[in-house]
Amino acid sequence: MNCKEIQLKLLEYWVxxxxxxxxxxxxxxxxxxxxxxxxxxxxxxxxxxxxxxxEIELEPEQQGKFLSEVRNKIRHTQTRPLPQRRMWWLxxxxxxxxxxxxxxxxxxxMKLKSxxxxxxxxxxxxxxxxxxxxxxxxxLNYFGTNGNGAALNEVLTGFDSTAVDxxxxxxxxxxxxxxxxKSLTDEEKSQLVQKIEKML
Amino acid sequence: MINDKxxxxxxxxxRFQNGQEGCFDELVRKYQNKIYSLAYRMVYNNEDAWDLxxxxxxxxxxxxxxxxxxxxxxxxxxxxxxxxxxxxxxxxVRSKTISLEDIGEGIVMNLPARETPEADLRRKKLQSALVSxxxxxxxxxxxxxxxxxxxxxxxxxxxxxxxxxxxxxxxHYFHAVRKLRNLLQGWV
Lengths: 200, 188
Prior knowledge:
- The complex is a heterodimer of chains A (200) and B (188).
- Chain A is an all-alpha fold.
- Chain A contains eleven helices and no strands.
- The model of chain A is unreliable at 80-87, 114-121, 128-137, 144-161 and 172-178 (pLDDT under 50).
- Chain B has helices spanning 2-17, 22-43, 46-63, 73-91, 117-136, 139-149, 155-162, 166-183.
- Mean pLDDT of chain B is 85; it is low at 105-109.
- At the A-B interface, helix 3, helix 4 and helix 9 of A face helix 2, helix 3, helix 4, helix 5 and helix 8 of B.
């Protein structure tokens, strides 16, 4: 290996993640290469700096009240509606999004009813279309608004793949849907579409 | 050790799913420091970290009934926290510049017993430089770096937390360290 190749592997070498044969190659190279020795030294010094950041913990007083505040917030979100003032504040922002979603859902529902295009193909097209942010959100909206959320869940339960993990994360953790859909590989998307097609 | 931790978590999750509310409290007590620490290092603000850590547990509470153990509880919890911090970072317009006063605000620090004023100032400047350098990393790289450097997670665990392959975790870590090294050249 030359210096450039060695330097690309130095971090893995230092943290002990290389196989033995590569470790030996690097060690042999280092014996006679001051440039790579200096590179490794710089790397070690940089990483040593980070051990100088302080430990972070909640202060004792905060530790005592953390759980009770979490419990209060859980109770609050489960039993009390949003304050009126906040709802009014949010309404102008929500109107365009709600209007767009309604129009989209109406349009596609009508199209499903009136055309010969199979739902399966439509869902497939929507899910794999280039405007991923909108289409991913739409697919989930589609299942939600058409009462198929439970069915989708059922399909996902028996479908072990990273794509499903990501969808579940969205449902549970509220990962941003545009990020979620963009993060799916072509293969994951196509697997998911096949499953959705079977469900439909 | 890890197996014990996983067993205990799994037991607590099962009991919570079977209606024992108190088991959730145990999980909060067990992980509140770790989640707060991760959130703090992601956003470097005491109040924001407090809110994000609390929101993490609230989402976990709501999600636990559906939790199917495709990952361990703690990687799932870290994942919720990282997602919240990343989403928070996208919405926040707060400056990335970290002042000396921000360092150590509201946190417990292990300080040397006796330190000269000069040494104290130098340490604070170094910490400020380190935090600013970490803040310069793109969110996913930052999460990978922090989870590995300070939480001690392995590549496959980090992969589950940030939602990518182990290979991508290695690449993120590599790029993060390279960038940090460039940013901290004056200190090495």
